[in-house]
């Protein structure tokens, strides 16, 4: 197996990031290898093999705070397709020691699709991955928080776009006041250009902080011509569907896709508490920046956002008879297309918190 030394330069995070999320540009020496041989452990962030031998990043923190720093020391790139996975191996330098067995909060993030598949608080997973999910690097991962980009739903290109079908790469890691942070990047390639012929950069930052999980998505037009897109985080929450409910949507304009997804019914949400009595597929335009999900399992989750503007509730009911009782989707979305000129960026954040 050949290994090749190479230089790896982290991109400069643009000014659209809040000041507390910016960090200086750095240059690291890295190595490439044909495959991931074993689990690599560090304090707070580790990269390991997930299901289907797909690489995943695991963020872990104890109850309270654990201060440490992380330095990327190697880059492993698998061969095969032009979009195959690249991942970073981290070396943790602990300022305070923590026993991983005592860690109470954890998140898992697959590089394929840039998909958060697990968010645990007190060892209880609040997200849901469908039992029919495939981890083969070919089909999107059905569950967690998949990306819909550059298209939400059906349209000129494939359903929900291509970002959930491509391998993202790790470009940075850090700790923010003791909380593990990882940043992923996705750029255009032959696969994306075969259906959407534009140059772009997507930066996705994930922060695990006690009882919360925050994400920031930045889309930048790196092309020489304008483009437009729609997007969403298609988040699956573990739930007892008969007891699940969402507050905060009263007064929103609705596009109800039941019974005809191609001709949604325009309406207005009149309920203070929205439930899931059967098949649900409804878009809420100009939704508030915070919703409250009661998952019917004894947990209440605050779903805050900036700049997503819209929300989507979905449960497939009998279309997925094997698992529909075990989850609901509450999705932050940008339904109206965003127009970006060359070098312009669009930023949206999501904060999930157990309350």
From TrEMBL:
Pfam families to which the protein is assigned, alphabetical: Aldose_epim
InterPro entries on file: Aldose_1/G6P_1-epimerase, G6P_1-epimerase, Gal_mutarotase_sf_dom, GH-type_carb-bd
GO MF assignments: carbohydrate binding; glucose-6-phosphate 1-epimerase activity
Keyword annotations: Isomerase
CDD domains reported for this sequence: D-hex-6-P-epi_like
Superkingdom per UniProt: Eukaryota
Membrane spanning residue stretches: none
Any one annotated GO CC term: cytoplasm
EC number: 5.1.3.15
Reactions the enzyme catalyzes: alpha-D-glucose 6-phosphate = beta-D-glucose 6-phosphate
GO biological process terms on file: carbohydrate metabolic process
Protein name: glucose-6-phosphate 1-epimerase
PANTHER family: APOSPORY-ASSOCIATED PROTEIN C-RELATED, GLUCOSE-6-PHOSPHATE 1-EPIMERASE
Record's keyword annotation contains Isomerase: yes
Species: Rhododendron simsii (Sims's rhododendron)
Keyword Isomerase tagged: yes
Family: Belongs to the glucose-6-phosphate 1-epimerase family.
């Amino acid at each position: 197996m050949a290994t090749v030394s190479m230089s790896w330069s982290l991109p400069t995070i643009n000014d659209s990031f809040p000041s507390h999320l910016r960090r200086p540009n750095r240059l690291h020496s890295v190595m490439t290898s044909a495959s991931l041989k074993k689990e690599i452990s560090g304090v707070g962030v580790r990269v390991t093999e997930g299901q289907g031998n797909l690489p995943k990043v695991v963020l872990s923190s104890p109850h309270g705070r654990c201060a440490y720093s992380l330095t990327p020391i190697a880059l492993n790139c698998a061969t095969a397709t032009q979009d195959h996975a690249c991942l970073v191996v981290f070396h943790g330098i602990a300022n305070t020691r923590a026993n991983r067995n005592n860690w109470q909060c954890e998140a898992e993030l697959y590089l394929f699709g840039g998909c958060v598949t697990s968010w645990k608080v007190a060892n209880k997973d609040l997200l849901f991955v469908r039992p029919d999910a495939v981890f083969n690097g070919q089909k999107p991962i059905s569950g967690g928080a998949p990306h819909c980009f550059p298209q939400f739903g059906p349209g000129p290109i494939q359903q929900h776009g291509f970002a959930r079908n491509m391998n993202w790469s790790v470009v940075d890691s850090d700790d923010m006041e003791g909380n593990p942070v990882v940043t992923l990047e996705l750029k255009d390639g032959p696969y994306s250009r075969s259906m959407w012929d534009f140059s772009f950069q997507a930066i996705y930052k994930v922060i695990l902080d006690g009882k919360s999980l925050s994400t920031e998505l930045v889309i930048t037009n790196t092309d020489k011509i304008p483009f437009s897109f729609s997007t969403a985080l298609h988040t699956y929450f573990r739930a007892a569907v008969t007891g699940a409910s969402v507050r905060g949507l009263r007064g929103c304009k609705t596009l109800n896709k039941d019974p005809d997804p191609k001709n949604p019914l325009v309406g207005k949400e009149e309920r203070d508490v929205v439930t899931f009595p059967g098949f649900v597929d409804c878009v809420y335009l100009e939704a508030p920046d915070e919703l409250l999900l009661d998952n019917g399992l004894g947990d209440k989750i605050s779903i805050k956002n900036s700049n997503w503007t819209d929300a989507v509730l979905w449960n497939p009911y009998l279309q997925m008879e094997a698992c529909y009782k075990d989850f609901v989707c509450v999705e932050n979305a940008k339904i109206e297309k965003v127009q970006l000129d060359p070098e312009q960026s669009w930023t949206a954040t999501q904060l999930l918190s157990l309350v």
